UniProtKB/TrEMBL annotation:
The chain crosses the membrane at residues 7-25, 59-78, 90-113, 125-146, 158-176, 196-216, 237-257, 277-296, 308-326, 338-356. This is Membrane protein. Pfam families: Sulf_transp (PF04143). InterPro entries: Seleno_YedE, Sulf_transp_TsuA/YedE. Keywords: Membrane, Transmembrane, Transmembrane helix. NCBIfam families: seleno_YedE. The keyword Membrane applies. It comes from the Bacteria.
Amino acid sequence: MKNFFASRWGIISVGAIIGILAALLQKLGNPGNMGICVACFERDIAGALGLHRAGVVQYIRPEIIGFVIGSMIAAYMFKEFRPRVGSAPIVRFVLGAFAMIGALVFLGCPWRAVLRLAGGDGNAILGLLGLTGGIWIGTLFLKNGYNLGRTQNTHATVGWMLPLIMLGFLILTLMYPQIDGEPKSGVLFYSLKGPGAMHAPLVIALIVGLGIGFLAQRSRFCTMGAIRDVVLFGQTHLLTGFLSLVVFAFLTNLALGQFHPGFAGQPVAHTMHVWNFAGMVLAGLAFALAGGCPGRQLFLSGEGDGDAAVFVLGMIVGAGFAHNFGLASSPKGVGPHGIAAVVVGLVVCLFIGFTMRKKAS
């Protein structure tokens, strides 16, 4: 049977569904202009596990768990679960860490950048321009032979690792639910205020995550890939899904009274435009070198891709570094060491791009 979601109208439909559901999750309790943010939600998971102690961003986000498990369900249903690994796992881990650091300087991944724009946050324009610039630099490396190595089939156990880790996070959440007024329950930390304390009901968030994971696996939805394909090949297939997400999130926000245009006073955002731009240059470059946006890496992990799983773990650990070492931004502006981290991250990513090119034989 033909995969409708891989067609032009299919990916437009998936983008529309994600845009609508993201806006609804915000209405149901998720932070402002953050119905879905892969980087922010992985940062919250890192906090809940105690990898950082920023008390305002600690919560096991069910949406992330749902993305991986939903993708795995789709992959098994349509015989696309293929456990595989490639090469350079430490490079993928480092790229994941710096992708997270860049995203937290901006305060959002590509998904949140477009959702911030759909909510009226003008600062997102700088982030999206930076994202495009970073991906463009990445395509220059791709054109000149950059490659992390071929993938090869491996044991099913490898493909199950990240889904099992996510299932473990869900079990921990059920075993140690939040206790009113307490910042810790068993082994998990919970925010009592700030973005981490704002969340949709667990069951609804998990169901939405499962649905998006399922649809994204079928459609190959990827925000980074949308821009890369236009730059490299002039193809607009993935871009139509990307644009559909923006349009339908905007329309839903408008209907729900969640559209508030402007630059100042936007939720979980700052107005240091140079570093909004530069943070997403770093994130976009890291995503391009790793082969997918943070959402796509989760969906690939659900399909059994061990390389994507290493990138995801790099992002979670990177979130811990970002908050422990003062790299992450806040509504007040960039963290005390965030600017230095962006510069170092760009140097590291450029080093990886220049040194991991195959010479023509």
